[in-house]
């Protein structure tokens, strides 16, 4: 079992930049042990002395801020690298794809160069701001809720009961954030193409009677799964089953809509302008293959991670050296 001291030190170290963790780890442990020894020499039981010392030190998050010499920030050092990598990836890779798709659609609707450039600039600003806002919002939520089930991030008091279990997370933060941001962007795109476009929507409006609301609910379930997985902090067979179910809830209806020609709006005729409609056929086939393979890959990936976790492969807390608590 992990001691209270281990849990306290780990909670403090996770908010400290990695290059400082080794020195602060040793300094903090030595300070705690000295205070505990002094209480024991004064007649206290060791367990009581440990509890008293840690309670006197107070909230480890605030102690970490004092050690690192920084003020409170929106996204702390534990999440900042993952936030920066994901946001950079989305702005550098995803945003151009969205803009290109918008430009192509605009060229089909109205090839006026002014409208094409204006639409591209508008897409860059609107989509870029949305990506930055929602990605940051997700990481802020993770920052405020990731310390453990007992912490809300809003309480002013702190007790030892607020210490999380000493269980280093095996769940990649970037994947969790992407798994929450993507459903938001896809839902926004689904609503925008129907209500935001001045012309005929690309997707079948008849599906608003059931399938599009269903897909939005499935996306929300997928985002909720990512948050639940982050709070669970590790993979196991339960996670594998839940992941498979939520993946299939979204993928199976999507593949059926594509295969049965119910996905695209029959009144959207721009596909017919390209090679007699062959583009739509091959785009549909490609989408079905991509969805099927992507779903299968994600299900297998989570199953393999769960089996690795079940076998008890060794784990380390970044920057602390050689801990291996279960």
UniProtKB/TrEMBL annotation:
Keywords on record: Membrane, Transmembrane, Transmembrane helix
Q: Is Plastid there in the keyword field?
A: no
The record's annotation in InterPro entries points to: Perm_prefix_1
Q: Which residues cross the membrane?
A: 86-108, 120-142, 176-195, 210-229, 241-259, 279-300
> Is Mitochondrion one of the keywords UniProt gives this record?
no
Checking NCBIfam families in the record gives: perm_prefix_1
According to UniProt, the name of this protein is Uncharacterized protein
This chain's source organism reads Paractinoplanes durhamensis
